[in-house]
Amino acid sequence: MGDVVLKPEVAAVVDGLAEVQSSEFRLATPLRTRDGSFEFQGWSATRWVEGREPDYTRAETWQKIIEAGRAFHRAVAGIARPLFVDARQDWWARGDRVAWGERDGQFRPEFAATAERLRRGLGPLGEAQLVHADLTQNVLFAPGLPPAIIDISPYWRPPAYAEAVVVADALCWHNAQPELLDYVQVSESAVARALLFRMATSNERDDLQDVRDEARRYEAAAAAIGL
């Protein structure tokens, strides 16, 4: 409605995010109600931003998404760790903790061998800060305008991890080639962690339509990065 986007869910609002400004990207900032709240009866709202999803068949698209993410992470580097990060218990939060060794995860038989291969490829990725860990399909483009970043998925992890999630998604769901890692300059170690996150999240879900298909995608992506 107008320049506002309503969502039938309560968004995870990060203190200080609404004040972020940059010439390198546009941000769909969360909006408050008249009484200062970020939600009303289970609904939340963000500012509408012009743009549409790009062509995911082009390597340049993934580069632009990652560049937008890098600009965003530079802009939010000074924001404090949100308190709700440690309290979240959704599928994605649990999968993320498994990927970082903060939670035990018993993988389904279809995922177990790939999980072991991915774990062998893990390594340090740098200092943690606020990141948007679901940039794929949440960066929009419009002619003559900086990229627009929407639907922030806040995590407290190294920026390289958030970038690698984009590459993992490209490999698993958009038929990207292994050469993409070199093209966008994201390390195999980072992508291994991101793939483990995505697979651990799938492992947590109880609504998967085709576990074997998901397992095949993760196995192929692990092979694509040499694991």
TrEMBL record:
InterPro entries (UniProt xref): Kinase-like_dom_sf (IPR011009)
Origin superkingdom: Bacteria
Name used for this protein in its record: Aminoglycoside phosphotransferase
Originating species: Paractinoplanes pyxinae
